[in-house]
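Annotators were shown the component list below and the corresponding predicted structure, then asked to write short factual statements about the assembly.
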Amino acid sequence: MSNPGTLDGVLAPVLTPFTNTLMPHLPLFVGLARHLMGQGLGLAPFGTTSEGNSLGVAEKVELLDALVGAGLDMGRVMPGTGCCALSDSVALTSHAVKRGCGGVLMLPPFYYKNPSEDGLFAAFAEVIERVGDDRLRLYLYHFPQQSQIPITHGLIERLLAAYPATVVGIKDSSGDLANMETMCRAYPGFKVFSGTERFILPVMRAGGAGCISANANIHGPAMLDLWRRWQEPEAERLQADLGVFRAIMEGMPLIAALKALTARRTGEYGWRRVRPPLVALAPEAEIQLVERLGQAGIVL
Amino acid sequence: MSNPGTLDGVLAPVLTPFTNTLMPHLPLFVGLARHLMGQGLGLAPFGTTSEGNSLGVAEKVELLDALVGAGLDMGRVMPGTGCCALSDSVALTSHAVKRGCGGVLMLPPFYYKNPSEDGLFAAFAEVIERVGDDRLRLYLYHFPQQSQIPITHGLIERLLAAYPATVVGIKDSSGDLANMETMCRAYPGFKVFSGTERFILPVMRAGGAGCISANANIHGPAMLDLWRRWQEPEAERLQADLGVFRAIMEGMPLIAALKALTARRTGEYGWRRVRPPLVALAPEAEIQLVERLGQAGIVL
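Structure shown to annotators:
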């Protein structure tokens, strides 16, 4: 079991529910957060899966405050706070620290392509300096396929040298296992989270911290089981089972599919809503997804 | 000469100056806006050149209000209002309409890659419906190299069919002249702006509206001269001269270079500042740029 207030293990990038006017739906959000935390998961709201960049700063503040209001263990919460605008990243990160979040997960500014390493270093450094709070624990968010802005080892090394007590880890959503293993070995104490449950076992063997995967919204307990038992003989089988599950999900538009399954679990139709540019899962695709999961014997 | 309150001709994507704490510098911003409008240019603040995505919504509102406060002709202002978050795009677009802006220039939401046409249509449609103001004039912003999200002809046709009085034009920063010419011919009345001064002449010949180019911050009068005289014999020469100028600028990190030249023109050192992930122009590059412009006989 993960300890209260520590950020390791399996974190769920909490889905964001919307009302029928596409505004954030606070009660459904708190309900999911409570459900996931009750399963032993940490929370990583406002990431890619959460449609975090489709939310404004004030909306993210309101959603985060709703978690505080619900009495959840904020030490186990790692909100996404990296925006394109320096001022937005500072405001959100500062708010997260004040609300006791155990860490923040920070995308680099992602509008300008091919930024220099100097520019990216400055982007993170300016946020850290402006927040100016030694409680800040920053996890870098490496997702080059989506952000188009890789977090290179050169950048990590400069940040670790400048802010060793603040820059404490990374979520690697590149799907490149070799990169995760290299970071685990090259940067002792730096907490490497795999962005996919496919690599929980090898990343734990390399000394990683855990996993932050979209699918934890619906299948977190199986991931947590592997994370707890990675040194046991069953680990290979548990990892293989997660691979079967993930392969089914990868055939689908992921966020819409996760929302459809959450709608089924909770009986709340509204969970199916997404903000554009995403589109909700088509009913026929939803039926197909449920059939495939059933055929694979996966019970969510 | 462009007429007051109409959006055609040459628009400058106004650079955004920062204070020594990297906050928007209102007096310098208003000073540049007044200077550019005094040259006969329209204004397109908060685009790529303006570091628009490096500014928060409240900062853009404050900057726009400063233009209103300065008594500028807002009918000749086309602010960028397209953000990743639906709520941000609605807030900014609504504010721009209320402040009398002649139009808005709207990027698609650019975090999620490979969105469906349905999703992109919904992204624009939701903003239009929520703003709900028949004064809104929306120009699409096609800049696939930067946003990674192209505005396809299929999408344009759906938007024109649904919102013919609102979706009135496009800025094409793709550098693909054939695309601009095709749109000019395919969509009568749809105002096509070239995103580069290299194509003012062919785009005007195809029936386009004008040009919105970064370089108008420092060299707008030459562009406007060509735009006014495109049917005269000198037009080919004027276009060729602009090509020489642009080739020199393209060897530089463009936004930082434009800011350095603006700092030189105004004597205001602070113009050199950029927000990360951009970096200021190195002093040696600035000297090289000034030399090259001098050798080409270009007086700014």
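Statements collected:
1. The first helix of chain A runs from residue 26 to 38.
2. The beta strands of chain A are 9-12, 42-43, 104-106, 138-142, 167-172, 191-194, 210-212.
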